[in-house]
Structures are given as C-alpha cells and as structure tokens.
Amino acid sequence: LSEHNQKLVFVFDYRKADEHEWTTPRTHFNPPMVNGILPKPEKVDFHVPAQDLRGVFFLVNMFALHGCADFAFRQDHEAKREDYNNLVLAMGLGFNSFTNHLSEKFSDSPNEFFKITWGNSPKAKDFITDNLTIGGITPPSEEGWDHALVARIVTPGKPKQPNRVRFCCSGRTADGTASAGWFLATRWQELLDIYRLDDKKTDLNVNSLVVGIKHRVGVEPTDEHDDSALLLKCDGKTLLSWGMFPGLV
Predict the structure, then answer these.
(1) How far apart (Å, rounded) are the C-alpha atoms in residues 194 and 172?
(2) Which of residues 130 and 112 earns the better pLDDT score?
(3) Which of 17, 25, 161, 243 could disulfide-link to 157, CB 3.0 to 4.6 Å?
(4) Calpha distance 50→173 (Å, rounded)
C-alpha cells in the first residue's frame, strides 16, 4: 500500500432504517420511560451490521501492523470514483452493490468465478435471502456450520499504473462476513500458498482467486467465534475458482 501511496477503503452496503424500525429500538441499556414514552435514538438513519465491523477491525489491525495507516469507510452508494484508485475491500454479499458489481464482471467466465443467488435460506426455509456459488458449486449445508467467501480480484489500473486489487469478505450471513474478515486478516498466507501451488495461475498481478470459507454457527453473538473459519472443502478439495477480470491479459 505504502509503495503505491494507496489507502484501504472499506465498502459496506447501504442500509436505511425503516421508519417503523426505530419506533421501539432494542438496546442493551434500557432507558427510563419519559411521560409514558420510551426514548429512542435520534438521527440513526443508517446502520451497519456489528459483524461487518468486527471483520473490518480484524483487517485494520492486520494492515496497520504492515504499515498502513490510511483507512476510509464508505457505504456503497456514496463511494467516489477516486476511492476506487485505492485498495478496496467490500464487506458483505448480495446486498452490497460493489460485491455484486465485481461478481457480475465474471458473468461470462466459463467457470463462474463466484455468483450471488437469491432464494430460500438453507437454515430457515421460509426466509428469502442471498446465497453464493463458487465455480458453479453451491457450498453444501452442514450441521453446525455455515459458509462465506474470500475473493482477491485484480482489475485493470490506469495507463502506466499497476493493476488494482479488490477483496470481498462476504458471508451468507453477517456472522460469515465477520469470519471471512478474520480469515483474510489472520490466514492470508493460505491464499498466497494457493497461488504458489498452482503453476498455471501464479501471477498475483493478473489472476483473481475466490475461496470458500466455513465457520461455526449457533454461538452467542458476544463470543469471539470468528476464529472458527476454515477453508471449505468439497469432495476433499478446497472449494475455489480462478478468474481473469475483463480487460486483463
């Protein structure tokens, strides 16, 4: 980052609070009733899942240890063109328009880099939400575990400038996004090892990589359970896919 004078820009999905959502907010602290009315927070118009922030803090700590001290936080609707000249990291899956944008760029790829799908939750059948496929494969449902993805995507840079790198830390659930952030922050070496082990796709400056992640579920939200994240395996092999962003050769 410092070599190219870049900062790290985190992009979250834009979530506007519904008018009725904050009528009776649930907070850890219970404020006293005033004239029979329950106080509520003022000007809380937007919110970011706490799990997304936890994933970000893992990453901020890691990048800070490697000398990066310039960070920016954007909701996807407010990100500016100049933000994308930096190292950009999208937090979240289907509701983040930047994650969608990156996924759709590979829509013509013969092996379906990664794709966002919509339908019934595998954990709650009457709940419609986002899901994912990697290389055309939907991660199998496993009792006590859920899945996420970590993607490293190389996009073209400006003329005579290095190519740019984007990351996606995207869980099927918000807990998965936190676990994906923890995985990238603490086990990034495993991604590098995959590049090194594949003699055909070893160019970090060109080849994009997405891997499946599995993490525990059913743990209390206050527990530090994000460190359960592991590479997801299907039929004994790590679930991953290679891709090349349009315009790169």
Answers:
(1) 23
(2) 130
(3) 161
(4) 12
